[in-house]
Amino acid sequence: MNLTKRINQIGLTIIAEIIASLLIVSLVSANQSNSKINGTEIKLSGTANTFDLGGIQTKDNRYIKQNRLIRSDALSALSSHDKWRLTQQHHLIVDLDFRSAGEAHQQPDKKIPHVTYHRLSVMPDPNFGVHTQRQYANQLALKHPNNMTLFYQKMVTNEHSIKAYQAMFKRLLQQNHGAVLYHCTYGKDRTGIATMLILSSLGVRKTTIMKNYLQSNQALKKTTHKEIIAMKKVTHNRNVLANLKRSRTARRSYLTAAYTAIDQKYGSIKHYLKIKMRLTKTDIQKLRRLYLTK
């Protein structure tokens, strides 16, 4: 009888170990799958939303190469160690800044040795994003709840914005090696549109692009919380705080608005890349040769 109990106990232990092993394998697989969707976060002390797009899968089962495309928020607070990591570990050679002249002057990117800097302002207003906390509160008080969807539509239809993204693609087509980092202030709006266009040109699924875009919410969670606390020191106006939260959040409806504007005005994202980004079939093939691997 004791022998039977012992055998049963051993059997249960083995089963428990097998279940635990299967759970671990499942979690690892899920993490790997998530990495393919979102790329790999580069944790720096001076940024909050920096990701290497390497590992993201395309429709034809290819993957973006590691250390070739990096999306980020502003580089104005990089430490010396951050600079070392970006250049030595991630092979950064080009920094594309989508911010306005005013933003770049107010909080300039840290100079990184051997990295070429280019400012490609997406918004036509040279002082876009430049304001005191009180001025910003006054602006937010007047904004309509759908302001962000209109903003996203503007970024894909405004000729000034289009020229900035055209210039981005020209730079990407010139980079035979090393990493290109592109960014705005928070790394989700102007940078979000840039990522949508880049991933679309590389043949990444729309659902994958959306998941990558929404990843900014987790990355910017602490930053957003701090900004809301800071704004409450200026005002408790509900409209101001609601619009601040809307402007600091990546929402599915925002990127969908950009896609809708493209579809309505240009027919499809494929046609948009051809007509507005001026990417020929040869350009698309070159981009995929430069930035994709099997």
UniProtKB/TrEMBL annotation:
InterPro entries found in the cross-reference section: Prot-tyrosine_phosphatase-like, Tyr/Ser_Pase_IphP-type
The GO terms this record gives for MF are: phosphoprotein phosphatase activity
Residue ranges crossing the lipid bilayer per the database entry? 12-30
Q: Known SUPFAM superfamilies for this protein?
A: (Phosphotyrosine protein) phosphatases II
Looking at the Swiss-Prot or TrEMBL record, what is one Pfam family this protein matches? Y_phosphatase3
**What are the protein's UniProt keywords?**
Membrane, Transmembrane, Transmembrane helix
Which family does this protein fall into? Belongs to the protein-tyrosine phosphatase family.
Return the protein name.
Answer: Protein-tyrosine-phosphatase
